[in-house]
Every structure is written in C-alpha cells, then in structure tokens.
Amino acid sequence: MAMTPVKPGEEDALTDYLRGLRTRGPSPLAKLEHTHLGRFVIVKDFHNDPSWKQRREEHLDLPYLIFTSNFDGDLDSYLDELCEKLAPEAEEIWGRCVGCPEAAKGAALKAYLKHNQIDTGIFFAAYGHATVGTVKRCLRQRDGMIEFARTSQGLERAALQQAFLREFGGTG
Amino acid sequence: MSVHAAPVGPITATGTQQRNVDGQAIAITVFSTIKWWGRPFLPVLFLLTRRFPALTRILRELSFIHFARWSIVRRIPYNGPPQRKGRLRYPHMYFESNFNGGWEEYIDAFSHILTRGMTAFWGSSYGFPKPLPTAPFKKYIQDNETEADHYYSAYPEATSTIIQRALALDAKLAPLKRDAERMDPDAFAAAYRALLTDVQDCL
Amino acid sequence: MASPAVRMDLGDIQGDILRAYGNDYDCTSYAFVRIECPPQQARAWFSGLIDHVTTAEPWPEQAKPLTTLNVAVTAAGLRALGVSEQVVGSFSDVFRSGMASRSKLLGDVGPSDPATWEKGLGSGDAHVLLTINAQQTSDHQRALGKMKDAMDAAGGLRIVYQEDAELLPGSREHFGYADGFAQPAIEGTSDDKARGGGVPLKKGAWRALAPGEFILGYPDEDTRVDPKRRLPNAPVDTLGRSGTYMVWRKLYQDVALWRRVMRDAAKHYEGGDEHKLSAKVVGRWTNGAPLVKYPDTAPERYGSKAAGANDFRYGSDRDGMCCPVGAHIRRSNPRDALGFEGHLSFRHRMIRRGMPYGKALPEGVLSDDGVDRGLVFVSFQASISRQFEGVQVQWCNAGNIFGLGHDKDFLLGDPRGRGKMTIQGSPPFFLSPQEVFVRTRGGEYLFVPGITALAALADGTAG
Fold it and tell me: Which residues in B lie closer than 8 A to residue A63 (C-beta atoms)?
C-alpha cells in the first residue's frame, strides 16, 4: 500500500484524472498483467466525530493518495514493471504528489513508492496461490466445459470422446 | 482449443457508489482511528490470525471475498515540505476488501455471522458501535468509508466463488485431459460421466 | 435474546397483509387511479373511500364480508393528495424512485423493459391502487360498479390501468404449479406457522419473524438485538405507523413456450420424464409437494394446509440431488440452504398475495393462442430494497450466492434467451435454452397506509 501526499492545489486535477480513467479506455492497471485487483483512493482527511470519546481530533495535513494492489510475485518485480509500463500515467498520478521525482518513472519512482509504503498487517486471499494467468485460463476453461457439457448431452460414446478431444486437446 | 468469451454477468454489485464497482467486484475502503489499547492489541490479533488460519475459516466459507487487507498506519513517511513533519497522534487502521454481491448483504453477513471477528478487529476503533444491531454498524461503516477514485479487476465478470470453482475444476479435469486420447470409447464415457458428476458444482 | 410478545393493533392495519383473506375470495381487481383534480377534491373522494377499507381485524367465519377493499398509494399519489415534499421525503428512496427507474437492476430489460409496459404502469400516472376482492362474480361486479360511481361523482379521477385476476382451480399458477401457501410466520400473528415459515434454527427448530419485518412501527429483527430497542426507519408518524410497502408486478407467462421447451429438453433427460424435469426447475411437483421431501415421485395428494406440510429444509440435501440448488422455490426462499443458521436469508422474507390473471391455456396445447395470461405478483415488506429487490437481484437474477455462477432462476427465463440450469444428479443434466418464459408487463412500488394514516391523508393532516 502506497500512501503519498497530494501537492496543494493538485487535488482536483488528480481526482479528475483518476475518475476519468474509465472513460478513456481500459484501466492502465491492465498493462500490469500480474495485477488481480487494484485501486486508487484519495483520502481527504480522517473522519472525526464529536460524539466519539476521542480526546483530540486528528487531521491530515494534506489529502493523501492511496494505491493498493493485489498482485503475483514479489514487490520489487511488480514495482519494476509498474515504474516502466505505467510511466506516462505515473506522471499524472504520482507526479502530482509531494516528493515525487521529477521524472516519474524507473528506479527513482520505485524508490519513491517504496519510501511511502505502509506495511500490511494482515491479508486475506481466497485463492492466494493462483496467478492472474492461471485464473484467466481456468475461467476460460470453465466456460468451455459448461458449453461442452451442455451441447454434448446425448452424444454417442465415440462422438463424445472425439468432441472432448477437439475441445480440450491433448496435454499440449 | 476453442476460446470462449467471459459471459457478462448479472448486476449484483448493489448498494454502493458507482466507482466502487468493476463488473462483479466491489471495493470497500475504510479508515478508522484507533484507541490507545488498540496499539498493542491489534498487532497481536494480526499475529494470531496469521498463525491460526482457522480463525479465517468463516471468511473462507462465506466465499464472496476475493482479497482483503488490514494495515495500521502509525506514522506517515515524510517527503519534505509542504508535507507536515511529525508523528500521528493516534494510529489509524486501513481496511480494504474486494467482494461480490450487494454492499448491504456484505455488511449484514459480517454483522450476523462474523460478530466476534468484527468486534475483535474494530472494537478498538473510536466510534465503533457493536456489530449488532446492523443499522448503526452500517452507518458507522458508511461514515468511515471513502469511494474509490479508480477501481480495477483483471477479471471483472468473475466472482471469487466462480474463480475458486474454476480452479477446482482445473485440478479435477487434468487427469482426463491427459488420458482421454489413450482410452477406448467405453472407458472414456464412464470416466467422463464420473468426472461430470464430480465437478457439477463447479459449472 | 427473547423479545417481549408484541401485540399488533389489528384495527389500524389494512387486511390481507398479516393474514390472507383466503381462497374464498377468488376474484380480484386491481384498479390504478390517477388524480387529475386538485388535492382538496381528491381528498374528499379519498375520505369517502376509506370508510370501506377492510382492516386486519379477524371476522367470524359465518360473517365474512362479500367483498373487501384495500388502498395503496404511489409516491406520485402522495403528492397528488397534497402531501408535502418534506413528508414524501421521509419515505424510502426506492419507493420514491419507482419501479420503472430500477429496471436495469431488476432485470426488466429487453422484452421486459418499461418501454414495453402496459400503458398507465410505470409512467408516474398511477396514484392510488384500489384492490377489490370478492367471493362471487356478482358481488365483484357490484363493488366495481360502486367504485366507479364514486369516482364519477367526485370528478377528476381516471382509472389508468386495471387488471382483473381470478384464482385458477387447485390454486395453481399458469405453468401448472400449486403456489402461494408458504408464507413467513410472524410473531404474534402466525406463530403456529413457524415450523417451515420462520427462521430455521439448530436441531430442526424454528422461530417466527419479528412483525416489524413486514409492518412499520413495530420491532423488526434488528430491534430484537438492540439494547435500545430502536424501531426501523419509517415515514413520519402518522403516515408510517401500521403501514407497509407493497410491490405490484404484472408478469406475463408464455405457457406454450414453457411447455415446448420442457418437452424438448426432456428428450435428453433420464427416462424422458417431462413432469420430473419441470418439477426440478420449480422445486415442487405440480400438486405443491416439495421435491426435497419427495425427490422421486409426487405423492398422490399433498395438502398444503396440513400441519407440518411446510416444515422442510435443505440441510440434508446440500448437493441438490433431491431438489436442485437453483430450483425456483429454493432460490426465492432458501430456508437453511445458505447455512449459517439462516442468517444470510432471514431478513429477506416477503409476504406474497398475488393472483393469476387470464384464461388458462388448455392442457396439451403447445402453441400460443395470443391470450394475455400470467401472474399478478404482490408482496408486502418493510423494506422494498432489502426484501423484494434483494431477492430478485441476488437470488433470482443471479446464482453466485448459491455457487451457481451467473445462472439465473430458470423458471423466470432470461431476457437474452441464453443461460442454463444444472439439475444435480449422477450424472448431472444441463437444462437449456433458458428462453423468455416470463415478461414483466408493468409494475409499481406502493405504500399501504394504516387506517389512522389513511384518515390523516384524507383530512390533509399528513403534513
């Protein structure tokens, strides 16, 4: 989880940019094939409620951009890929954050993101050992199996076997 | 091997703002301020939960969560002015989840079924009402929740349950895929029938 | 946590909600009235109307009224009666938005899109719904006549849509299935129906549901676990108390299509048994016997009102080998099927009071005769979004919570004509195509005020 302070005056532009990503085509995170799920969230401030017994309020000095991702592999490799493939977007996103290197890419960006990392306390994954590639392959296979199971009902034995081999191939 | 496009699923991501949704996946992002006793308590809770996965058994059984994460923000890394230097007065807990089905149904499940778990994780947060009754608990989550500005899923039309079943199917299908060519039609038909019976809950 | 017994003020609640009027009332008319005169004039008519509204007070067996009258209003209707915007704002968001605006969510797309609905429904023109039940046609006609006379006398009122419904023999619906008898057990009203109608507890026990799940102003299931005993959100007093929200939907059923698809699909099904395959889709045999209790053949007779008839659950049939996991009744009322002692389903119950409409398609006929027939779906619940929409969206139009991927309730059909149902078995059978068996022809979200609330609306003192 990376939590980076947004430069004063840049919050609106950053908000518009992030919210506009969906309207301009696929998410840039799609370029990072090892990403299962990811999000960008701008947190304006901590929530303080007078009815709570909190003795003193706590406020953030600036809005903060949170970026989290559920990905395959180790953090370093993921960041390497991000800092290379997301270079154009990184300019618009972290380029608007305090302390981001002039050229928001490569090793400098990676160092910046690592510096602003918040460690995860505890993590839950329903299918933690499956990579994105495996998940996608298995989903396609499941769709294929449903279609096959549905259309092959009533096929004679030899025809059934032939149809199965056509659909699922050999081990290759 | 034929290619099948992922079917576009029904609308089930209800009860939350539009930007928290990507297909079947819903994002929830919550920050809460932690009381003094949460400071030593939460790391121990996290440790125990990591060491004894049985504690997350119910979470797994509920099946509609892809990934979830809890992090404690004790200090915010410093990047120079105009960021303010200095420690935070309180620790803050960051919670995020990626799940399927309605927001209301999700919180209800946590209220009713994970009552003790909710109290363990959020009991040390300021303002936390008990998980039951559900109405004040839902209001608490809503007040502390922030809508995502951008949310992405690599497989938006797949739910966590579908993925788990697809993975299970893969494991069970592998032997038949491997042996099919070498079997005679009768043996194949029997094996296929047995397989289909075994994987019907994956389809 | 035991809650103190709740006493319901039956004289203040409209009838046919807590307890059904019963099958004696086999003719029903639903008349949607549009108010085209100023609120004061409309309220004068409304005043005369509500004198005849039937309450929930029980009547002695020999003194059943020949007809009953009940009144419900839409959000537009509240405004037409002169209720202030501020007070209308205290009603639920979903009620105020109206059913037509929820079409994508509810799956009312394609042939069920509001653009195709009956004129007068879903357009904001329906203000007041008058529901008239009668035991005999002659009384029915007389009551309808009186209603129309009162409207003509008042002036500035027009029926924008009317549906006349009639029970089919054997309390069946048009696909041929006995329907409508499994209703929620309500604490203080129908505790005797708890076995099967209530919340499934451990060791086969059941308990009735809190009345506030169905009638506003009373404790609901959340109140039961609240030390402060707070009541659920409701519109401002006097309007909120003793009232409930109503869902009204006209569902066209393509009986001929259903019969053809099931006949063709049965060719590949074990033993070619079309009756069994159809029962698998529904979860009951045509006589109403639940598959989970009678998995192989229908019992010769099934008394839906017999003691214990509704006392069944799915725990012993987790795999769906007796009653398929995606069968219609299992989806719309999962009982213990979702595990966790019913906690994922107990807050999604509805009271259903619908009626079939239109002449039956004679048995054995497989081609459409152009007759409009189907089901008027009516439900009562304290929360339209949690109870009606929750079930429609998460349990009927989707299958994920049951582990069925994106499979929808096969019986309701798929607007795109695709989709399948897995009939669990050894081996399983995959039923398809899922054609458009049911089409939404129109609907409204309404509020059913209590008796005091009706008077407040008529007096113009509702705020």
Answer: none
